Amino acid sequence: MPDQHSAIQQARDRLARAGAITVLTGAGISADSGVPTFRGADGLWRNFRAEDLATPEAFQRDPNLVWAWYNWRRELIATKRPNPAHYAVAELERRRDCFWLVTQNVDGLHQAAGSRKLSELHGNIWKVRCTVCEKVTENREVPIPIPPTCLACGGLLRPHIVWFGETLNATDLDHGMKAAASCEVMVIIGTSGIVYPAASLAPLARAAGAFVIEINREPTPLGGIADLSFQGRASEVVPVLLDFDDRPSE
Ligand code: BV8
Ligand code: ZN
Q1: Which of 69, 165, 183, 203 has the lowest tally of Cβ within 10 angstroms?
Q2: Beta carbons within 10 angstroms of residue 163's beta carbon
Q3: Cα of 146 from ligand 2 centre, angstroms
Q4: pLDDT tens track for 51-76
Q5: How many CB atoms lie within 10 A of CB 41?
Q6: Spatial distance between the Cα atoms of 24 and 70, rounded to a whole number of angstroms
Q7: Rounded CA separation 124/34 (Å)
């Protein structure tokens, strides 16, 4: 890995010359906004691990407990704002016709920062879906009364979120895979690279010939396929990397 300064210059040159750019984000991009990451120490709630609650089985067994967890997260996220990394990604979208953002996050902070060309692979914490009529609506009640019921049919509502063991929305996944397979540069920000199929988008981009840039606070399994890995806080590193001139250096 070249020294930090030349690595930053190399990343900026690659981005400046890239016509098509795809960004893949995980919980780490929202960490500096105060949103607990999924696997970080601050992600626990009443000593439950997220993986134990974000499942259809947990919801089947005790929907009120799962809703209490989501109410805790909704209340917390409702007070959080995008950070400079979210804004830098939204700005990059405006600078490229061929741009797509694939996020694993459900917090809605990318949209709050102005991102529009994105797929939310794991859903959105501000959307609910009826378990009976499947109607999806936006709901920003904080807290949402438990158990929430569908205005259309009275059925029990669930978060419109993809839980472990559930398949992703085929359109979202397809869009994400196409964006990974067709980009010249993929920027991966704040993901542990553990959850599939989202994590498979990085090797997919690499195999298709993309230059892969990773930003994370610590080394991840994706480091092995990144051409450049930057260790640091997304809110500090991402704005620096994305601050490039569109005139590639000679
Ligand atoms: C699927 C919504 C087909 C929930 C999420 C056994 C049985 C069933 C399935 C599986 C199985 N084994 C494996 C699987 C597949 C499973 C999976 O991958 N499991 C993992 C745990 C091994 N995947 C699935 O089940 C997917 N569906 O495969 O369907 C299928 C069906 C049946 C059977 C087989 C296959 C569905 C996955 C979606 C799960 N839902 N979220 C909710 O949010 O309520 S995933 C969850 O993890 C979040 O969305 C999160 O975004 C995502 C990924 O985590 P990260 O975003 O990476 O967050 P994490 O905390 O892990 O890491 C944060 C990173 O940021 C760290 O690297 C840290 O260093 C860094 N960081 C921290 N601070 C900063 C920072 N970086 C920069 N700056 C900072 N300041
Ligand atoms: Zn309904």
Answers
A1: 165
A2: 18
A3: 16
A4: 899 999 999 999 999 999 999 999 99
A5: 7
A6: 24
A7: 17
